[in-house]
Amino acid sequence: MWPFPRKPVNRRLGRRHMLEVKARADVLRAARLRFGALGTGILLCTVLGIYGVWRAAEWATDRFLTGNDAFAIRQIEVQTDGAISAEQIRRWAGVRVGLNLLALDLSRVKRDLELVPNIKTATVERVLRHGLRIRVLEREPLAQVHLPEVRASGAYEPAVLYLDEDAVVMPPLAARQRAIPPPQPPPVYPLITGVDFGQLCPGRQLDQPQVRAALQLIIAFGRSPMVGLDDLEQIDVSAPETLQVRTVQGTEVTFSARDLDRQLRRWRQIFDLGHQMQKTLATLDLAVSNNIPVRWLEASSQPLAPPKDAPPARLRKKTVSATPSPAVGAGLPTPAADLRSPKEIRKRKSESGRSAVSLFWATDFGPVSDFGFRLSDFLTACRSAINLHPHHV
């Protein structure tokens, strides 16, 4: 062994190579700061550039387009198919001469016009460089409803509102809103009763199924064989499945809400049968599919009220033209026997004879003063059936 003990040495002090961790962290921190500052500068310059371009484009648009007097509106053309005046339509649209044509919001004008209850659709177009064209399709009244209102005196008086084919409620046009005076006498539309008063708000579309069925009945009646022979005066929609109708001649007819065209054809057949027997209808229940209940009146017991005239054709101005509706006859049409073949005549007589016998056998209840079954009426129906079938004699 070594005679002198070795002095202890700290080995850590003898290391020559050291990890410079602190120096590397400083370098990374400085690099991150440089990249962050560079990215922030690029983003700020981009935002400022976009804002500058936007402001420049806005200034150029206002200077050369929307603020340029060369594009000011000088002519407003209004086309309508109804009676609303052009000045009233321009007032509802909120446009006037002098506004910039390119700065005008066409969608806003269209929306404002279609919010008017009496206007169905509207179209707005620019006509460069100084024109604006507005086309309006007005709603056509189809029926009327009465809304009770309290007057200044405290009394209730009905306010008249109209319904179009889409069941949209609309008020009547005031005299100052019309381009022409109302027709004289004013047209009378069928009155619909039993409507929920809470829904009678101008511009609102009614969602009652019975109201829509009543409007479909009015449309179907206009193309039915009963046109000119009678007319609808009042339709009660309070019942859930049927429509209670009163005509101008005092006949009370019950309709089902379905298959209206077929019921109108059966009404015409029964009407013709009563005309042959010199009787008028008092009540008729067409909601029954078989053995229709009928109550008759003697023809001389009640005078017949003339049916209403056909509504006048709608006024169409500017480029929209109107086609006048054909005149409606007031009496029974002439028989078509001269225009049909003998085979068709025999078939028609056979169907009429079968319907006459089945109708009176099950449903004839005599005049209003006598509700019992009268044998004379039955014998008359049998004789009519025999006359319609000479080959059975």
List the helices and strands and how they pair.
Layout: H1 21-66, E1 75-80, H2 86-93, H3 106-114, E2 119-127, E3 131-138, E4 143-150, E5 156-163, E6 169-170, E7 191-193, H4 209-222, E8 232-236, E9 242-247, E10 252-256, H5 260-276, E11 279-285, E12 294-298, H6 342-363, H7 375-388
Parallel strand pairs: 1-3, 7-8, 10-11
Antiparallel strand pairs: 2-3, 4-5, 5-6, 8-9, 9-10, 11-12
Strand order of the largest sheet: 7-8-9-10-11-12
Number of helices: 7
Arithmetic mean of pLDDT: 77
The main sheet comes to:
6 strands, mixed
What is the straight-line distance between the termini?
Answer: 163 Å
- Any idea what the CATH superfamily of the domain at 71-138 is called? membrane protein fhac
The coarse silhouette is elongated
Number of strands: 12
Q: What is the third-level CATH name, the topology of the domain at 71-138?
A: Ubiquitin-like (UB roll)
Under CATH at level 1, the class of the domain at 71-138 stands as: Alpha Beta
What attributes does this structure have?
7 helices; Ubiquitin-like (UB roll); six-stranded mixed beta sheet; alpha/beta; 393 residues
Question: Your description of this structure?
Answer:
- The protein has 393 residues and is of the alpha/beta class.
- Among the domains are: 30-66; 71-138, Ubiquitin-like (UB roll), CATH 3.10.20.310.
- The protein is 33% helix and 18% strand.
- The protein contains 7 helices and 12 strands.
- The strands form 3 sheets. It has a 6-stranded mixed sheet, with helices on one face. Strands 1-3-2 form a 3-stranded mixed sheet, with helices on one face.
- The chain is elongated.
